[in-house]
Design goal:
Largest sheet of chain A: 9 strands, mixed
Chains: A alpha/beta (229), B alpha+beta (81), C alpha+beta (739)
Structural class of chain C: alpha+beta
Oligomer: heterotrimer
Radius of gyration of chain A: 16 Å
Number of domains of chain A: 1
Radius of gyration of chain C: 26 Å
Shape of chain C: globular
Strand order of the largest sheet of chain C: 8-10-7-11-9-12-13
Strand order of the largest sheet of chain A: 2-1-3-4-11-10-9-6-7
Number of helices of chain A: 5
Strand content of chain C: 15-25%
Number of strands of chain A: 11
CATH class of chain A: Alpha Beta
């Protein structure tokens, strides 16, 4: 399997996700510079966390206009799987590949902590090694992760079963207290219609190593590798 | 020309920063505030001197980059520089 | 003003005084110029180079007394940061620096640029920053500005570090009314470098291009270095325009561009433009290389129009570097900086004149012998009086509380001991994927990427101890960082110090400084734990009120095998808890005395360095052998507080006994004796350890065992973990959320 990690000048989780991919795939991911016009042939595109262009103006807004994003959109539309983590999720919404937008966290503060997520689907390439309803622990680290979509879009996401993960308590209950940033319907991550694009605010690459305190994130990478290898 | 672009959150979109400002003003004793919404002001110096052309140009900039139409509105003011 | 010092046209004694130079210093300026008067621009250059901040004029004679060498030391004080060997051809580069005054005036930007500055000090040497820490001190929680300052400083530190993608892995936050008008923001950065790829500041060779890279120069921060060397008064808040604004995104680009160029061999010397900007970087590089330098200021990339030579030389605009390159390598370097979207300009050349020459619009603006600027700054042997050590208090002076249980709850929920979660959750402490010991423990533990090794990092000082007895307090600050590192299993390597004090022109303040240095030196010597970098911040006073003496110590240690490390939590239900170290019930200068009785009397706990070394080494060996993986050091608040912290971290309760029956329960539970560790181990292992310790002459006792969901102490007092957690976790968020 081949994976490409897109590197923006302000990306800072590019190495972290490359480490997780390598652990799962057994080989290095291609690191693709944002100024390039084309991504080499790949089975998976990853938009990593960070502050792509300093996140000035809006998170991910300027990155969405960068040369490489044209090719990301083309390849995504032709079915190449795309994983957007944190800033990558913000970027996917700014680029129109996923609906909605990210507002400032409800408490207005940057938040870096472990949160619990309920796995809403396990029938996608990203989630097949999870069990539906599983409660997993994965960290968040963002200032603007408060998912917003208008009522109609939100209803569509729910009706078409496009919610990937929701913030929950340790028992799997979806509560306001377990919602760290004010996201609509506790949404932590969503899919596109085909389930080939996943955007999520939590960082699976940050708990994919037992020395770091957990391996729930590793399951996402192993799911991908099993399907795409 | 100089363009002043105001970008604000759409009505109905929660504005946590505006809410915080509202609360802070209240605690300072400024009563009688119904709502506070905050946004961005972007100043652009343009070479274009034709008002209609300048407006069209800036409108494009807003749609493409300056505002996120999912959550934000924009307004454009032009003045001769 | 001395009558015989010449003055250039337009310069008045008032202008000279505004530049922070007294008449004798001004006379020395004229002397170093061969008797002529300095131009206005030259006056500015002298004023920053001879400021306390850049010249260490009051502290140099004392700093020289600190031990700075050891087999592990690759580079000691005097460079941008200190460097220690961590084996396998790798080295750790680290330093702590103050950004106190700017942070008081504009907390967000002051703290942010403090973080940016210390990171540049580290990557200037070729190291990739791998962890940030900070030591923060604010005024009394009741002071009307405290909340605003805490909020601004914390978000500023986060805003910068989070964006650049270096984890902020911990630090200290304390409150005391002495910091009401002078908060302390001490930022520390640790980087990783290959021993054969270290870069220094020296600009050797004549005729080599001097290159400016990074952001453009604006008028920000002009006179920041002199501001950091003057006392505050009520007008200081008007100095706002001089505060620099940070751009972490540009710093990230600068970091990547510098490291990319450093992979090759085009750079001869490199130095960041920190305090006193282009002046100090130009002067220091040339001076260290024993050459002269000539700069053409017309070529400095400027952000604002009509900037004068004075402004360009003194600007403290952030995210800029000065490099001396091997001739002919400019194009290669320029390509890299342009790829990262940064300014690149060859602005000068090294010369054989030994002078700092700058030209602007065809005129020579400065022509100063470098040697005088860098080394002939006045050096003061200021008067000092080290206060006599106070007597140890008697037990009658620290009476028992009405309730042990409520005392614990009050301490655990107090401003100084409550959970700092509210703070560190605003810092990205996990980016780079190597934070194996997160904030909240004794020391943060960060893996050396791709290896089995880790670095443990901590900052510490107990200012109330230093205030009571500067020598013991200085010793204790060093010993406590050593203990924090040992508690994780790390072998302590070296320290950086950030010496925050009041006005050195007062002999009692200079006495605090001298005493603290004496104590620190003694501890460093005894623990083979040298000082490799540091920073001095004096004049931390407002209207004559000085801060508590605060020699903040940042220590780092090496864990050879990351698997063999300890966390500060109870291990498992049923574990035996062992207490290593003395039980003398020392309550003088304790938090019990301050927060429960409401006084601050007597001697601080004495530090027995031999005992520290023995106990720490014993604990470290147990961890390295895999016998123990749950250890917490016992410090502020005493024994029961330490047990409570271990219990909360694991969500397992503990029953403990009182041991020394000659002492009252509250002295045992809340006394702050030093050199102590609590171990949580399984029962079978505990017997071996007890025996082993006794054979080695280590003071040890069975303290109790891990059990249930509450803390219980011999004699009846019991506290539910849930209540304790509530008290511990709620103070800071409740405080910060009160408008």
């Amino acid at each position: 399997m081949k994976a490409a990690v897109i590197v923006f000048p302000g990306s800072n989780c590019d190495r972290d996700v490359a480490v997780s991919l390598k652990d799962a795939m057994g080989c290095d991911a291609d690191m693709v510079w944002h100024g390039d016009a084309e991504i080499p042939k790949t089975d998976l595109i990853v938009l990593p966390g960070g502050f792509s262009y300093g996140d000035y103006l809006r998170c991910g807004a300027m990155a969405a206009q960068s040369p490489i994003m044209k090719d990301v959109v083309t390849k995504a539309n032709s079915g190449v799987p795309v994983l957007g983590i944190c800033n990558g999720f913000q970027l996917l919404t700014e680029a129109g590949l996923l609906p909605g937008a990210m507002l400032r966290n409800a408490n207005l503060k940057y938040l870096c902590k472990d949160v619990h997520l309920r796995v809403e689907r396990n029938d996608t390439i990203f989630s097949r090694h999870y069990t539906q309803g599983d409660v997993i622990k994965i960290p968040i680290a963002h200032h603007d992760g408060n998912f917003f979509a208008d009522a109609k879009t939100l209803a569509q996401l729910e009706d078409r079963n496009l919610i990937a993960f929701r913030y929950c308590d340790s028992g799997g209950k979806i509560t306001d207290e377990a919602n760290p940033n004010g996201s609509a319907n506790n949404i932590a991550g969503i899919y596109n219609e085909n389930g080939t694009i996943l955007g999520l605010m939590p960082h699976p690459e940050r708990l994919a190593d037992i020395q770091l305190g957990g391996v729930d994130g590793k399951t996402m990478f192993s799911s991908l590798v099993e399907t795409l290898h | 020309m100089k363009a002043l672009v105001k970008v604000t959150l759409k009505n109905g979109v929660l504005d946590p920063q505006g809410k915080a400002i509202h609360q802070a003003l209240g605690s300072l004793g400024f009563d009688g505030i119904d709502q506070v919404r905050q946004g961005k002001l972007i100043e652009i110096d343009l070479n274009e001197n034709d008002e209609a052309k300048a407006h069209a140009q800036v409108e494009k900039m807003c749609e493409k980059l300056l505002a996120n139409m999912v959550i934000e509105n924009y307004s454009i003011e032009l003045e001769a520089s | 003003m001395t009558t015989d010092s010449p003055m250039a046209e337009g310069i008045t004694p008032e202008i000279i005084a505004e530049h922070g130079l007294n008449p004798r210093e001004y006379a020395a300026v004229c002397d170093s110029l061969g008797g002529r008067a300095p131009s206005y621009t030259e006056l500015g250059v002298f004023s920053v180079m001879w400021s306390e901040h850049c010249s260490y004029k009051s502290s140099r004679v004392w700093l020289a007394k600190l031990p700075t060498t050891g087999p592990q030391v690759i580079c000691g004080p005097g460079e941008n940061a200190g460097i220690v060997d961590i084996g396998d051809g790798q080295a750790a580069v680290f330093k702590m620096e103050s950004h106190n005054h700017p942070s008081y005036i504009e907390p967000y930007q002051g703290a942010a640029t403090g973080v940016g500055g210390i990171m540049r000090d580290v990557f200037t040497m070729g190291a990739r920053p791998i962890a940030n820490m900070n030591a923060l001190r604010f005024g009394s929680p009741e002071h009307p500005k405290t909340r605003h300052l805490v909020s601004g400083v914390v978000s500023g530190i986060g805003g910068y570090g989070n964006c650049i993608g270096v984890p902020t892995v911990g630090g200290e936050v304390n409150f005391d009314k002495s910091y009401d008008g002078n908060i302390l923001v001490n930022a520390m950065c640790v980087g990783l470098v290959d021993v054969d790829k270290i870069f220094y500041a020296a600009a050797s060779g004549v005729g080599n291009p001097v290159v400016y890279v990074g952001s453009k120069t604006g008028r920000d921060g002009i006179h920041g270095a002199t501001m950091a060397s003057a006392e505050f008064d009520d007008d200081s808040e008007e100095k706002r325009p001089t505060v620099q604004v940070g751009d972490p995104f540009t710093e990230k680009l600068l970091l990547e561009a510098c490291l990319e160029l450093m992979a090759g061999d085009a750079i001869i010397g490199i130095q960041d433009m920190g305090a006193a900007g282009l002046t100090s970087s130009g002067v220091e590089m040339a001076d260290k290389g024993g050459v002269g330098v000539e700069l053409n200021l017309d070529l400095v990339p400027c952000r604002e129009e009509e900037m004068t030579a004075y402004e360009m030389l003194l600007s403290e605009s952030q995210e800029r570097m000065l490099m001396v390159l091997t001739p002919g390598r400019e194009d290669e370097a320029q390509k890299i900086f342009e790829k990262w979207g940064l300014d690149f300009s060859v602005i000068g050349v090294t010369t054989d004149t030994g002078h700092f020459v700058t030209r602007h619009k065809g005129e020579i603006k400065t022509d100063i012998p470098l040697d005088t600027l860098a080394n002939n700054a006045p050096k003061y042997n200021r008067l000092y009086t080290i206060a006599a050590a106070p007597a140890k208090i008697t037990l009658e002076e620290a009476p028992a509380p009405n309730s042990l249980k409520h005392t614990l709850l009050k301490l655990m929920g107090s401003a100084d001991l409550c959970s700092r979660r509210w703070v560190w959750e605003q810092y990205d402490h996990m980016v780079m994927g190597d934070t194996v010991g997160r904030p909240g423990g004794d020391a943060a533990v960060v893996r050396i990427h791709g290896t089995d090794k880790s670095l443990a990092i901590t900052t510490d000082v107990t200012p109330r101890y230093v205030a009571a007895d500067a020598i013991e307090g200085g010793k204790q600050a060093v010993a406590e960082t050593w203990r924090n590192l040992s508690a994780t299993g790390a072998t302590p390597l070296a320290i950086t110090d950030c010496m925050n004090f009041g006005n050195p022109e007062r002999s009692e303040i200079m006495g605090q400084f001298a005493g603290a240095i004496r104590g620190m030196a003694e501890a460093c010597e005894a623990l083979s734990y040298p000082v490799v970098s540091g920073n001095v911040s004096l004049y931390n006073e407002t209207n004559g009120q000085a801060i508590l003496p605060t020699p903040a110590i940042g220590g780092i240690g090496l864990i050879k095998d990351t698997e063999m490390r300890a966390s500060a939590a109870i291990g498992a239900e049923g574990d035996t808890l062992l207490l290593i170290g003395p039980e003398r019930g020392h309550l003088g200068q304790s938090l019990y005395q301050r927060d429960i009785i409401g006084t601050a009397k007597g001697a601080p706990p004495p530090v027995d360095l031999e005992e520290e070394r023995k106990n720490g080494t014993f604990v470290r060996e147990l961890i390295a052998a895999g016998d123990v993986s749950h250890v917490h050091d016992c410090s502020d608040g005493g024994l029961w507080v330490a047990v409570a912290e271990m219990a909360l971290a694991a969500n397992i309760g503990a029953d403990i006994s009182l041991g020394n029956q000659d002492l009252p329960a509250h002295a045992i539970l809340f006394g702050e004796d030093q050199a102590r560790y609590i171990l949580s181990v399984d029962k079978a292992k505990s017997l071996e350890i007890l025996e082993d310790a006794r054979e080695n002459g280590i003071e040890i006792r069975e303290l109790g065992f891990a059990h249930g969901d509450s803390l219980h102490v011999e004699g009846g007092d019991e506290v539910k973990l849930a209540d304790l957690r509530k008290a511990h976790e709620s103070w800071l968020p409740d405080y910060m959320n009160t408008v």
